[in-house]
Amino acid sequence: MLKALLLILILALGLIVGPMWSGNPGSVLILAGPYSIEMSLVVATLIVVAALLLLWTLQAIFRKLSSGKQVTLGWFYKRKQRKAEEQMAQAMHHWLAKNYREAATQAERAAPSLKQPQHGYLLAASAWQALGNQNELKRVLGLAYDVANDDLNVRLLQLEQMTDSTLALKTARQLLQDHPKHGGVLRATAEAYYKHQHFESLRQLLPQIQDRDIVPGARLAEFTRASYRALYQSAGSASERLLSFWKDTPKKLRRAPAVRMAYLDVLTQRGLGAIASKVATRGLELNVFTASDLLQFEMREWRQTEALREQVEKQIKRHPDHPNWFVLLGVLAMQESDYGLAERALQKAISMKPSQLAYRLLGDAYIAGGQKETALQAYRQAANLR
Fold this sequence. Notes:
Elements: H1 2-22, E1 27-32, E2 35-40, H2 41-96, H3 100-110, H4 117-131, H5 134-147, H6 152-161, H7 165-178, H8 183-195, H9 199-212, H10 217-233, H11 239-248, H12 251-254, H13 257-269, H14 273-285, H15 291-294, H16 306-318, H17 323-335, H18 339-352, H19 356-368, H20 372-384
Antiparallel strand pairs: 1-2
Helix pairs in contact: 1-2, 2-3, 2-4, 3-4, 4-5, 5-6, 6-7, 7-8, 8-9, 9-10, 10-13, 13-14, 14-16, 16-17, 17-18, 17-19, 18-19, 19-20
């Protein structure tokens, strides 16, 4: 604009100064219908220059006003965004204070003015989830999805809330396809597979979860036990086929506590107590199992437990201060109808650490030995520890 103005001024000066130097200022005649206007060339030039300057001034004023309007709108927008961020901070404070209803309200109110509105809606969804309000949760998740169809956090939260097993499986597989190495995706899909009992898919996912160390050890063990239990259950009722499934399991996995416990689950369910006893014995020999692991099983149907009891006695020598080994010895002693040994083992466990299980089993041992009054006292002690 400045260059154009300088050019106009130079041309105007040329038109004015040139004729004046030549001694002939010249004239301009303007005819408009019956009217005519005559003026010198200098005056005409000055009028043209004045008109151009006026036009340039009006244009400059218009641009200034337009720019001011944009600045004003930008200021209002930033102010609104700043207030939304303050509301989000308040919502987060309420969420941490477990005031979930207020957190949901503040977060949803702030969401539309945030740079990423889905974050506000996701916080509101999390608050409604904590309150157990499924209707509000689905509504707010819908709002989040509307403003961010490709937002990964929204997709993961939607997967978590899905109740349709087939849709959850399809969604989880799509997420894995889109983000095969994302830790959050691996964790969320594993939880979805477990929740909807897609155990074959969960079993295939286990190596990635284990390598990435993205879930707590106890949760990984739960996933592993459930998925391999489903695998062994698929063998049906034929013990030969179940044994074949077990032998086809890699040796390294057979030494994993969760996998061996899954096999014991199925053996116990199928009434294959003698095989279960052998598998548990081998687990103790390999230091795969602890007493707490084996106490999870209903061993009353197990058979041929002599070798297992011998292994437990060896473990007691190694861990004389661990009460659960004595509890396990008491269980096995009752299996062999050695109620005196069962009483001594359980009394020893109680002397180290009283527990409801130990007292209840001691009561069972007293009943089996014909000591009804003493058994009643043991059962009362068990009830008092609830």
